[in-house]
Design goal:
heterodimer, A: mainly beta, six-stranded mixed sheet, five-stranded antiparallel sheet, 0% helix, globular, B: mainly beta, four-stranded antiparallel sheet
Amino acid sequence: QKEVEQNSGPLSVPEGAIASLNCTYSDRVSQSFFWYRQYSGKSPELIMSIYSNGDKEDGRFTAQLNKASQYVSLLIRDSQPSDSATYLCAAARNSGNTPLVFGKGTRLSVIA
Amino acid sequence: SAVISQKPSRDICQRGTSLTIQCQVDSQVTMMFWYRQQPGQSLTLIATANQGSEATYESGFVIDKFPISRPNLTFSTLTVSNMSPEDSSIYLCSVELGEADTQYFGPGTRLTVL
């Protein structure tokens, strides 16, 4: 199993809907989890971090972590065309003091 | 977060030449990293730039091809040596800052090798 896995998409949702992005991870990464947004031609931008089980909300974004099932998700409420981007899931390895492991990213398209 | 800059932002180079990319941060950071992102792909870690010692390279990347310097806690360079068209990619530096394991990325350097 890869350390961090995402469905590459594309995921298409209508404007105003909830976009749900999912990520699963292996036993080798379980410390910290992050969601990055990357617009075409730009570098990744940190959206959310989550460290413990449950939900973490920031504006229209909610990150959900379920360590028992080894998945982390990102919900985007009231999706806007400007949310159209690739979303990268990342996790820290258990060994500590190492760089993040990134998934391949999910391309989201919000249709006006 | 921090302000991270990279130079150059883009370049077009000839096969067989070398390019040095600079990464500057506006605050001192312990951990700096270099990534490559090929067209349509996710991020691939090249190496961790260690201050005061040799960089730690990931499998598939070697110092002769990608020499890295880290003279202080705010600056690093990545050189892409003896370039071939396969090296055409976006090169990104990142730093670890703030909450545990949190990384922030520079704007990237878009390299095209002819």
